[in-house]
Amino acid sequence: MPVIQPVPPGTVITTDVPSRLDRLAWSRWHTRVVIALGITWTLDGLEASLIANLAPVLVEAATLHLSATQVGLSSTVYLVGQVLGALVFGKLTDQLGRKRLFLVTLAVYLGATALSGLAPNFGVFAALRFLAGTGIGGEYAAINSAIDELIPARVRGHIDLAINGSYWVGVAMGAGLTEILLNPAYVPHAWGWRVAFGLGAVLGLVILLVRRDLPESPRWFLMHGRPDDADAAMAAIERKAGAPVAEAYPIQLTVTGSVGLLYAARILLRRHRRRTVLGLALMIGQTFFYNAIFFSFALILSQVYGVPEGHIGRYMIPFAAGNFLGPVLLGRLFDTTGRRVMIATTYIASGLLLVATGWAFRQGWLDATSQTVCWCVVFFFASAAASSAYLTVSELFPVEVRGMVIALFYAFATALGAAAPAIFGAFVDMYRHTLNRTPLFLGYLLGAVLMVGAGVVARLLGVDAERKSLEHLAEI
Prior knowledge:
two-stranded antiparallel sheet; 21 helices
């Protein structure tokens, strides 16, 4: 067959592919796509949960014999790896395609996670956590781009939030695994933490096999001047998804091809400055908020409340359930009540609730159970807020820079928030020596201020993106 040359950049093409994607009824094909791609968040939640729940065990002499500060540093190194992975793979996903990258990044994650369980010391363990982070960081750009470009506009909000909320399914899985693997009655601590990482790698391998049959984004084909490939991919999707619910309509698009950082900078700093400020505020607020509290969760329970290491999981599971239910139950409101109102509401509510919880913690009014209940309530709203941040930065910018923009926002916010686990690990060490809860409370207060501030920004600068096509949002 003759090779069809791409249409050169700058060419205006007429196509109905975007409206054909948006008009599709929800189908089993969409569900398979969501599961195969959204599992990224489950894997990341599993990783974070393993580290959080393994923290008390990793300080034992029979395992890696880490300090609480080193446990925090291993989480920070993992987050730094996510930053680098997002930047490198984010640009490549715009250049080479969504599908190629979400296969490569998952493979990187798998290898590093499997080897993490074989680490002999802190240095090797930290290096492997860094590599696992690069894989997950790269996943964010490719996966969020692909999901938003394949999901119909009328349900994009609550589907995107539910997918991002699946992070907490992974957290619950990790908690369940460690509840068994960290119980010396079943597995000695010296081996349990290693087995936990191995099981995480097995799950990722299964997903890698499932992803091979997913299509490339037709919208990516269009931006790279390949309308025939876009039509072919769209026709294949329609055969699997079934009858549409509306008529298709043509629009005009300008082919861009691969673009560079200067092009992305013009989009971010000139054309959509308000959206850039909005995205940064949302991403920074939720990143610090989560990194500060979640990565110190197990240490707080064990060091402050005296919860045995093997019982951490039974507190983590209800905490994960609250985080998962928030996006699932509130998500539909983001498509009905609207983005601006719901984003502001969830950010501000979670910040104010954390202030109240932090004050109760400082005053010594809580035990392990009531502390967990309070955090469940806080993160019911905070999880929906955090998920909406990823929705915002992935739907408000043009297709040709979507992967790069997601990576830049994610990397910048994660770089700022990466210090939070190490800081809170140090705060826990301080508590162990002084029994002073004030440093931890002040850390909670900072996270709350960032969330409330982001909520105010969302109310002022938010975009009413509900039920609008990606192409329409890129032009307004």
